[in-house]
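My current task is to audit a protein record that another person submitted. My question to you is simply how this chain folds and whether the tokens agree. This is what I was given:
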Amino acid sequence: MTGDIANKIKETFQVNIVSDQQFGWGEQHWLQLEPDKSKTQPTVSVSTVYPGGSQSPHVHSGYIEIIIGLDGMTTHWCDDREIKLEEGKISYISEGSKHRIVNNSSKPISFLSIVYSTIPKPLEEGIIGKDIELSEVAKLINLDSIVEKFAQSVQMTVTLIDVAGNFLTDKNNLPEICQCCINEQCGNCILNTTTVTPPYLEQKIFHCKFGVSAIQSPFIINDKVLGYLGCGYGRMSTNITQAEPAPGNFAADSAQEVYFKLNFIHRNHLNSVAETLSLVSASLVQLMVNSMKEKELSDYRINLSQEREKQALLHHSLSQARLKFLESQVNPHFLFNTLNTIAQQAEMDGAGTLASLTYSLSNLLRLSLGKADSLVTIEEELSYIKDYLFIQQTRFPDKFTVAIDIDPTILEIKIPFMTIMVLIENSILHGFKNVRQEGHLLVHGYKQGNYGVIEVCDNGCGIPDAIVAAVRELPNADYDPPSLKGIGLKNIFLRLKHYYEEKFELTINRSSAGGTLARIVLPL
């Protein structure tokens, strides 16, 4: 009967038949429409109901159906509304209603079916500023829960996989034949990423070689396929003649049994679910984009807040340094003028050492005025380091020797005021304290690639391990070790970070020969 009906349809409507389905109550043939520019076209089919045939009630989810009588009379029910569809009569089945058909006559009757989707247009996709992974977004918006509720609403199996083929939903929900196909890696649908390499860029209804039908809809963000949402995984035929034998461990005689375990899917139902899935996919993409934008904005706010905290901490540190410096000056201009007067008088009285010592202290004060929170060149800092060292060596004669070896190519590197001075002071006041042998202090500067390196090395008592560990932890913004108080190392670190951000290194360790090695690395 199928061949005669198909030929009659082609002859009557002058179109090709794109697909057909056979049921216990009759058969249905879908017609090829001329394509147009619209994204969604109605589907048109001719339904033939066998004598005494009766279609079970089914719900029209997501589509309306216009029916036109062609031959004979069928009785339709739309919920409780009875429709006597005779030749030439037009009626409709509303969206969401329960529909069933009965042919009480002794001959086949037929009617034309036109199905329109009632799914609204999807949202427009947005753009986000970075590449994302589907698994990352799935956790962010609880995607698996959304997919599970969608599966319940359409009463079909739904899958979600990323572009690498990793399942983000439970693949045990798939039919037995699909699970075996995936395990044996012998399928030709997108669930088998090892055998199917080209990504699907558009939604499609796919019929696999084993006779399983499913809708596969890609997630595309920023022109990149992130994964696929699949739905259906049932059969659209009452026979297995066009399907290959079942895969894997299934014996040939059990292939048909495995195939018929699949849920039966009506083509109109699958088409309407495809439209729904298209909307769901587009809406989920929009939800993903909005969620990622919100996450980017949240991350930006957090980073901005952290940066403000760092700025406030640095400002507080600079204020403390400036206050201590001002407190130590005791009206520096008055003291500077007084020291010059003392030095001139000592020179007139023939006290050369006293005059030199006083001039050194005066120069040190003059150079330091107004530079508590500024940058100076290494060359400039060395000028008052020499005065400082002269004062200390006069104060502690024969206590230590000093060698300064600075490569001229790094003299123009700028550093925060009193950076090297603090390291030298720590060596003299802490490193050489309670040490019997003569102290040796080396200030070494050299070029290393695109960086300048400054090292202050002494042969003193060696730095405590607690301070070494504390300096190593300084990049932690919340770290405030009490062991660094009073030796200026945290202040040096914060000021270097303010000017150079992450492009510097500050380390301090016990040297291999004994004593302490402090090291600063700065970009040229």
In short: The mean pLDDT is 77. Residues 416 and 496 are 7 Å apart (CA to CA). The chain has twelve helices and 21 strands. The first strand starts at residue 17 and ends at 22.
